[in-house]
Amino acid sequence: MTMFYSKVIFEDSELEEDTKEKKPHGKMRYAAAMVKTDILKSLIIKGVKTEKLKGLLQEDTEGDKLRLFMIARKRSSLLKLWAIRVTYLILLCTIALQFKGLAHMLTPSFFKAHSASSLPPQRIYENNGYLMVSSNGGLNQMRAGICDMVTIARYLNVTLIIPELDNTSFWNDRSQFQDIFDVDYFINFLRDEVRILKELPPQKKQKVESESLYSMPPISWSNMTYYYEVILPRIKTYEVVHFTKTDARLANNGIPEEVQKLRCRVNYHALRFAPSIQQLAEKIVKILKERGPFLSLHLRYEMDMIAFSGCNEGCNREEIEELTKMR
Q1: Which of 98, 122, 233, 300 has its CA 20 to 30 A from that of 320?
Q2: Euclidean distance between CA atoms 192 and 194, whole angstroms
Q3: Dist. CA 252–CA 268, nearest whole Å
């Protein structure tokens, strides 16, 4: 009994030294070690048998193993849970990508063309004023006049207000620009060239209504020099200028190439018919195709419809020379 007591005392002193060394790791471990030491001392002093003491020590070791096993099992469960969550997220992302690709395939080209990502970058420039126009003549003349007005507004760095269509010269038709053409497409398509608004800003509109609107017909067949030297100073003076006529107000020959290209871009790309008209036309063509071959003939097609557009796309050299003479 004396030998065992000395052995325990030795182990107890080692335990105290080990506890002191591990003390910086935490107050809880230090306190637990001190409690164990006190318990062992009290048991030895009371004369507890060696077998019982060994049993207590063995039970304490088995308890530590059980706690370690429970901690390891808990960590394993947490890892499995996170693995399930990650797998679930990857599965959701895969399904979302599949649906996105399917939606892109099934989306009609009409809606794709109107997406915001297809818009050209907006041209930023110092605005010199506002140009209002009243188109005159038949639909073809008004269309050509609108092309001229867009081009003039772009190179004078002014803001163009959506043109007003002629309702009295040839027919009693109250249709306006937005009834014939796709106005939103027109504005967005040309945003990299010129700023176009559906109406004057409130302040400018109030000023025009309270005071007077400066109106004038520009001289026919004028080149860009006329608009730079005569029209631009008036726009800067009055802030808002109204053109009462638009037909044949810009020359077709002898103008810069970039000016002519813009006119053609407006005519053949920006001026698109309103969706209701486009759908009706496609329906008519579909019915005609189902009934067999057909021929479409414009009974009042005039040569100036091609010549006065100023566009030579698809023409050979002889045709270009002939169109130049017509102009």
Answers
A1: 300
A2: 6
A3: 16
C-alpha to C-alpha distance for 114 and 313, rounded to whole angstroms: 26
Is residue 264 within 8 Å of 310, Cβ to Cβ? yes
User: 79-108, pLDDT tens digit by residue?
Assistant: 777 788 888 788 787 777 676 655 545 554
Residue 218, both tokens: 């520009």
Higher-pLDDT residue of 139, 300: 139
Written in H, E and C, the secondary structure of 148-161 is HHHHHHHHHCCEEE
Instruction: Please name which of 248, 38, 297, 242 lies closest in space to residue 142, comparing C-alpha atoms.
Output: 248
Mean pLDDT lowest among 204-208, 256-260, 306-310 = 306-310
The residue with greater pLDDT, 122 or 110, is 122
The amino acid that residue 289 corresponds to is K
pLDDT at residue 115 in the model: 47
Give me the residues paired with residue 184 across strands: none
163 in Cβ contact with 187 (< 8 Å): no
Residue 256 has pLDDT above 60, yes or no: yes
Higher pLDDT, 114 or 32: 32
In the block, residue with structure tokens 């099992």 = 73
Are 211 and 236 in contact by the 8 Å Cβ rule? The answer is no
Q: Residue 315 and residue 307: Cα distance in Å, rounded? A: 11
Judged by DSSP in three states, 22 sits in helix
| DSSP per position, 136-202 | -SSHHHHHHHHHHHHHHHHHHT-EEEPPBPPSSSS------HHHHB-HHHHHHHTTTT--EESS--H
Q: In 3-state terms, the chain is what percent helix, strand and coil (to 5)?
A: 65, 5, 30
Q: What is the pTM of this model?
A: 0.62
Type of residue found at 169 = S
